[in-house]
Amino acid sequence: MENIMGSFYTKEELPQYCYTLYSLWGQPNKERERFPKGAIMRLHFFLNASLRSAPGEDDIFRPKHNIPSTPAVQIAVHSPYYLPSPYLDGANYLGGRSYEIRLSMSEKHLLPAPYQTNCTNYFETWLKRGGKAPINQMGVVEECRMNQFYEGMGCVPLTVDYPHQYTVCRSCPEGTCKYEINTDNCTLLAEHYNQPCDSLSYTAIKEQKVISYFQEIEIPFINEPKKKEGARWRLAHHDCEGHMFWSRECSTIDIDILFDRFEITSLTYNPKFEDGRNIILLFQTSPS
Predict the structure, then answer these.
(1) Is the omega angle on the peptide bond into residue 114 within 30 degrees of 0, that is, cis?
(2) Name one Pfam family in it (predicted).
(3) pLDDT > 50? residue 135
């Protein structure tokens, strides 16, 4: 489990669990994980929809309601140097179904001033701060908002998209929250930062796949022990209507992350020469 980071957050008896695989957040000395082309990562989720009428009275926190709607998970594939919200950058995967995800990666390496790309070296700050710092302009703005809310209110609203361990502010109906703290000035910080000198981005193609399973049938034979036979079934997804919502199959999600067509596109700007007035850049792309 060394490659898994987890957190827990609950709101109005509804739990929110968040897990991150192969993250470098807070681990600046850890090396990025590499997977061979053709590898398959298999994820199996059991969300355990519950009919409990009240929280369980034991040492383990068991909320009154485990699932507010159809059991589902939200997954985002992102840079290992940051922890974005999967609700903003990810996709939804429903219970009772199986999926495949195919990935591709793009990386950019730009040049700082005086070159035309005029990038900002966020990674340098990220290293100095122990692997916990913004990696782009939006991260700078969101970190500023987080700090101002916490200093002024002692909590951080859910609308702030920056990883933290502060208390989350009580929610209110959408559009009716009126916080005492004004963080509009944080957006001005973006004017002092530019696109990152080094960046990674991923594209995830999600496809639903057929569920295949074997159902056994016991057939007794005369003067012979029982012999197990059966049939193999293929379904687009399990039936989760009505009371079937609470079945184990409808709380299960299987996801295969495939690296069989994994491609890396690299865009690198290199200084060629400058004569004091003109700067010429040489850049190249290299899919692999």
Answers:
(1) yes
(2) ASC
(3) yes
Instruction: Take residue 204 and report the two structure tokens written for it.
Output: 């995830």
Distance CA 22, CA 30 (A): 10
Determine the Cα angle at 189 with ends 183 and 191, to 5°. Answer: 135
Mean pLDDT of the region 12-20: 68
186 token code pair: 């944080």
Question: Structure tokens of 30?
Answer: 């850890």
Q: How far apart are CA 257 and CA 203, in angstroms?
A: 12
Burial 191-225 (b: 16+ CB within 10 A, else e): eebbebbbbbeeebeeeeeebeeeeeeeeeeeeee
Q: Following DSSP, what letter does each residue of 51-102 receive, concatenated?
A: --SS---SSS---S-S-SSS-EEEE----TT----HHHH-EEEETTEEEEEE
Q: Residue 245 in 3-state DSSP?
A: helix
Helix (H, G, I), strand (E, B) or coil at 249: helix
Q: What span, in angstroms and rounded, lies between the C-alpha atoms of 276 and 109?
A: 23
* One-letter amino acid of 143: E
Contact 131, 25 (CB under 8 A): yes
Contacts of 208 (CB under 8 A, 6+ apart): 97, 98, 99, 100, 236, 237
Identify whether the C-beta of residue 185 lies closer than 8 Å to the C-beta of residue 191. Answer: no
Are the CB atoms for 170 and 205 separated by under 8 Å? no
